[in-house]
Design a protein that fits this description.
The protein contains 8 helices and 4 strands; from the N terminus they run H-H-H-E-E-H-H-E-E-H-H-H. It is α+β, with helices and mostly antiparallel strands. It has one domain: hpI Integrase, Chain A (Orthogonal Bundle), CATH 1.10.443.10.
Length: about 200
């Protein structure tokens, strides 16, 4: 599930401020749910010492490489909102459980009107299973990274630049995201279709 740019501008008035702030930050800097919760490269464990005025600096768990992620005006505003607050273990943001975050995301998606049906196909052993769910029901913390990458590509940011921010090792790991953007571009091109009469 990917949230496209138009929905990112939607305000979520009835959702906990920390939940919406943390998820919006994930969407704006490209951190996945595994990174949010379980590694040293995450939002939940982001320390004050990792936050600089114009970027954050994180170390990936898998490769132990340092990654500099520049901040845009929205991500800077989110981090500045919590700048003077003190959290346990010198964290830079309030901690929100994955379970609470995922529940809130589904509510936000419902309120934002992200309701079109989505077909999910997967295999359990040799059995093909097909399910249809409304898009809001599929929202989870994991969507943050996908949303960041696909929207970045859609906005014209070169894949090699996005890889620098996300820590994707090579172009091959970006291919699934690029396919989504290609399909979206094909769909958008149909808006130019006009009736040709003789």
């Amino acid at each position: 599930m990917i949230i496209f740019w138009g929905f990112l501008k939607y305000l979520f008035p009835d959702v906990d401020e920390a939940q919406s702030s943390i998820y919006c930050l994930a969407i704006l800097i490209g951190i996945s749910d595994q990174q949010i919760q379980y590694t040293s490269y995450n939002i939940a464990k982001l320390k004050r010492t990792d936050i600089f005025p114009d970027h954050i600096f994180v170390v990936t768990q898998k490769t132990v490489d340092g990654i500099k992620i520049e901040l845009n005006n929205i991500s800077q505003a989110i981090l500045n909102k919590y700048k003077k607050m003190r959290f346990k273990n010198n964290l830079g943001l309030p901690v929100v459980s994955n379970q609470k975050m995922n529940k809130a995301l589904k509510e936000m998606g419902f309120n934002a009107g992200i309701k079109s049906p989505q077909r999910i196909v997967y295999f359990r052993q040799n059995e093909r299973i097909e399910e249809v769910h409304p898009n809001y029901a599929l929202l989870s913390c994991h969507c943050g990274r996908r949303t960041f990458v696909v929207n970045g590509l859609y906005l014209g940011i070169p894949p090699h630049v996005i890889r620098e921010w996300t820590g994707h090792y090579d172009y091959k790991s970006m291919k699934p995201y690029i396919k989504v953007v290609d399909k979206l571009k094909e769909k958008e091109m149909t808006k130019f279709n006009i009736s040709i009469s003789k």
